[in-house]
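TEACHING EXERCISE
Course module: macromolecular assemblies
Task: Read the component lines below, then compare them to the predicted structure of the full complex.
Student: A.B.
Group: 4
Components provided:
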Amino acid sequence: MLLVLDSNEFIFGFGFARKPSSEALLDTITEAPTHTIRIPRLIIEEVGRHLTPEEFREFIEYIISLTAIDEDFVVPFELGSKYEADGLKPADAFIAAYVEWTGADALVTENRHFLRQHDNLPFRVLNAADCIKTMKAFR
Amino acid sequence: MKQNLKKAKRHLAKLRELVSKRKHPLTEVKEEKVLETLRKTREELWDKKFAART
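Instructor-supplied answer key:
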């Protein structure tokens, strides 16, 4: 599966606030080559805001061991506008547009409200626990 | 892009070790508070990026 992880999955998965499902999600991604992630610069910066320089260096090394970092400007403006017109805040619209642009199977987030009221999305919105179940079924 | 899972595992373990050794404002707070903090971070960063373009 190709996944985009929201910043909260990294924060929970690194152990700032205990969330076993998010920790297990990062473990699964780090152990199974059948599942890959994509990440935009914005999420790198969001997570980085909460890390010390030493932690940030480990975070970057972790990410570049798994995937390349996509610059935000690669996402077509029109895709973001579509989600903004649907009522999302600009930054959330960008994340939704990024997930669509990558062709990912799912956006993984613990934010229950994010995109869940939107029908006909070209990707699924899952929390870590449901994502792990889906990944197991995918194997 | 070729994944290096062994290296990723090592850095994830090191990062968790570093995080476990310090008290952070997001530690021991409710999940909703963490999500709210991250929402604010996203909005601030986006505003900064957008302001830089105009």
